[in-house]
Every structure is written in C-alpha cells, then in structure tokens.
Amino acid sequence: MTKQIDRRDFLKVVGAASVILGYSRDARAWVTEEGGGHGTFDRVPRLEGVLLTDAASRAAKETDLGNIIFNKPKAVLRPGSIEDIAKMVKFCAERDIVVAARGQGHATHGQAQARAGLVIDMSSLQVIHHIGNGFAVLDGGCTWRQLLEASLPAQTPPVLTGFIALSIGGTLSMGGISGMAYDKGVQIQHVLELTVVTGKGKIKVCSESKNPDLFDHVLAGQGQCGIIVRAKVKLVPAKPLVLNSTMVYPDVHSLQNDLRTLVYRKELDSVYAQGVTDPATGAFVWLLNIASFHDASTTPNTAHLTRDLSYIPGTLSTNDIPYLDFQLTVDNFIAFLRSIDRFDRNMHPWYDAFLPDSGLGAHVDEVVTSFQADDVGSFGFVLIFPLLTSTITRPLFRLPEEELVYLFDVLTARDEPGYDADFAANKRARNNEWFDHARSLGGTRYPIGTLDFTPGDWRRHYGREWRAFERAKEQFDPRNILAPGPGIFPAGC
Ligand SMILES: Cc1cc2nc3c(=O)[nH]c(=O)nc-3n(C[C@H](O)[C@H](O)[C@H](O)COP(=O)(O)OP(=O)(O)OC[C@H]3O[C@@H](n4cnc5c(N)ncnc54)[C@H](O)[C@@H]3O)c2cc1C
Q1: In degrees to the nearest 10, what's the CA dihedral of 123, 121, 348, 404?
Q2: For 243-272, what is each residue's pLDDT tens digit?
Q3: Domain of 114?
Q4: Of 195, 261, 295, 411, which one has the fewest beta carbons inside 10 Å?
Q5: Is the CB of 66 under 6 A from ligand 1?
C-alpha cells in the first residue's frame, strides 16, 4: 500500500490544483500533485468519482444550514459508485480519518461535518433504480422530491417530510416526520431494505429479517453505524387532490385538546400546527392545519372532519389543491427565501424537542412567553407535530414514554445573512435551557437541531438502547470514524 510517488499515477484530474495522489500517515495529510508529493504515502484507491482537496470544495462542506458550527474537512469525495464509498471508508478506517456522509447538509449543528476528515457528498449519487408496485429502490443521495416526482401520479411515499428537498439517507438517519406521520409512523417505519457501507468499508444489505441489528442501528442512527447508499422504501397509492383546512386557536391548550381529538379519530391524512403572530393584534396564536387526500369524485366533508372542534369561530379556511402542490408548500417558500438570499447563508439555531402529551402545554407556554423578537425571526417557523408512539418500532428513534407525543420546533432564522457570534452564543444557551425544561417534563431530543449534548447526554438520550447501540458501533464501526459531528461516541472512547 505504501509507495513512492509516481507522478504519472494520478487518480483524477479535477481542476489543475486538485490531483490527489495519496495520504501521508506521517503528515496526516492528503498528498496532492500540487503539493509536490514528496516522501512516502499510501496510494488512494482507484475511484470512479472524484476526491477533492481544493479550498473551495472543502469550504463548501465546512458548515451546514445552521451556519453555527464550522469544521473544515481535509477532503471531499464525490463518489461515482457505491464501491467508491466502500473503498474510501475502508481507506479512512485504516488510517483513523473521520468520515461524514452529507446528504443536503440541512441539519443545523455540525451533524454532517468531519473536522480534518473526509466528507462524502451523497448528492453525487442520485439514481432512482426502480419503481415497482408498492416500493421504490433508489440511491441514498436522492431527495424525497425526486422520488415523489418520479412516483406520481400513481404512487407516493406514505410519509413525506414538510420540506422534501432533503436526502433519503439524511432523513432516514434522523426519523423523518411531518403531519402525515401521526398515525403511520415516521419515515424510518416505511423502509423495506437498506444497502449500507459500514465503518469497515463493507457493503451490506439489511432489513427487518436480514442483518436486523444493522438495520435497527442505521435507521435513526445518525450515521453512526453505516452510510445508507441505497434504500428500498414503501410507496402507497396516491390521491390527486388535497382538501386542506386551517383554523386559529388562541393558545396551545385549546389547540392540544383538538389535536388529541383528531389524532385518536384517525380520519385525517395530515395534521399539524404552526405558531404565528397575528398581524392584526400582535398576539401569538396557533394555526391548526389539517388535510384529507381524495379523488376528484369524492370531496371530503369539512364540516364532518372538523366537528366539535373549539377553534376561534370564523377562522376556518379551506382549499382544495393538487397533491404535489400540497407537498411542495414548504419547498416553494424556501425557493422564495433563496431568491432573496435569506436561507443558505442565514444562521438557523433550530430547537426541536419531543414532549409527552402531559408536558406539551407547560413547555410551550414556558418557551413562547419568553420569546424575544429574534427567537423566531422574520423567516422562521414554530411548529407542533403530534405522533402516536405505538407507530414506532425502530429502537433509536427516542420518544417520551407516553402514548401520544408531539414534536415542538422553534425553527429560528436570523434575519440577516452571515455569522454573528453573539447570536450563536445566545441561541445555543437558549436552546440548552429550553431543552433542560423539556427533559424535566419527560421530553427527548429530535437530533436535527442545535443543542450542545455531552456524551453523557447522549447516553441518557438512548437510555435502555444505549448498550445495544454501543455494541453495534463496536461491531460496524470499530475504528469509530463515522459521523463524528453529534459527538455520540467521541474519539478515544
Ligand atoms: C427547511 C427544512 C425543513 C425540514 N423539515 C423537516 C421535516 O419536515 N421533518 C423532518 O423530520 N426533518 C425536517 N428537516 C430536518 C431534516 O430531516 C434533517 O436535517 C435531515 O438530516 C436532513 O437531511 P439532509 O439530507 O440534509 O442530511 P444532512 O444534514 O446532510 O445529514 C444529517 C445527518 O445524517 C447523516 N447522513 C446523511 N446522509 C446519510 C446517509 N446516506 N447515510 C447515513 N448517514 C447520512 C449525516 O452524516 C448527518 O449525521 C428539515 C430541514 C430543513 C432545512
């Protein structure tokens, strides 16, 4: 493996300055042609894709949508095949180089970063291999939007996230929730099979019946035990139209009463709520959003679906819209934010916690009454998603121990683009404080957001699953190189 430099033996030429020849264990650095390539080095495997060490490629992967944590990788892989990923993970494991898969980089606290390591840009593999009756097989780097556009008009994933430009591998590493999940379970419940590259660089297929230990520790596994390179996910018949209604509640308690009623009735296809400031009064109110999917021949009965609810009279508003338009609501808003440069460069210190039914009201009151003007921001959101815990069987998706729980998100967006150290410090401290309150009520973390967790916090988070998770990590990533971002298994442990 160790070889003297051979200047003709280049891997790929990706711009004059970026020919990577190998890796020097002594210097703990990639050896590039530009750097002269003196001394001995380990030759990088032959790849179908490209390995990049130029400043622009590394800078593009040093942060994420949070724009709060910055860890510059030493190299970026744009794989041309699953085998490229396996080869490079093996190469890195043998040299203790940390590796993070990056889908769309939309987690907000360094989750997809690898300081001084290798970031694998999963977006270079985005092939939908097969759409069958009731399932699709596609690359982990595909987005849910790509899948939806390919599977419609006949089929749809049973649960989509609110924003669907997220990667398959990224949301399956977290959970994947929206208003559609409340009675069906989050996206990780709708996976039939995964192809995974483990931390040893082995390509393995897993499912509920094949390598179930790997399957259980990859779904919602935050990339700790393997990289999802391909997934077989469920599809269900799609309906062309959505009857979508909103109604206003003055406070979280009246909203929660009706959320409970609607969840247990199980008559809706989607239910969630958004906290908004009423422009007329300046009051913070809740907008309940319910949806029923239907064919052109059968319009759902809004009066029936909203019977006995206690929203503010006169605030019910209903629209009948195409299914794809409904699923693209958030994507279209984000396209607008991008058009005015208020998304990718803005800081997003997101707060995301699951609360038990018994604790939601107290926690939301505590948080909302403390809001400063910049706690949500002009382009942020406050959301509540109900979820029945009986729908969840995947062990690493950690939820409060009640039958009904809610994801409560304060998706803060700083108004102006660019980094502000005081804002970062202030909002990190705020999130940590809010989460302490949530946890005192039995809350758990949804790990997409911005929270400073110690290894002890993670052990507590995984609770009775911790030992099995630790064992899986030892088995599938024994060099502890995968997904260092969340700090679950810090180096040296
Ligand atoms: C505008 C917006 C709206 C959102 N809406 C929702 C929502 O409605 N519901 C919801 O559940 N979430 C939502 N999220 C959060 C989102 O699900 C997570 O941030 C998710 O991780 C994003 O996917 P990604 O492709 O950007 O992942 P990244 O941020 O790139 O990665 C996240 C983590 O997953 C790991 N990872 C990425 N790809 C792979 C892979 N192929 N194999 C193994 N590990 C991998 C990374 O290493 C990292 O640890 C939203 C985010 C944004 C920005």
Answers
A1: 70
A2: 999 999 999 999 999 999 999 999 999 999
A3: 2-123
A4: 295
A5: no
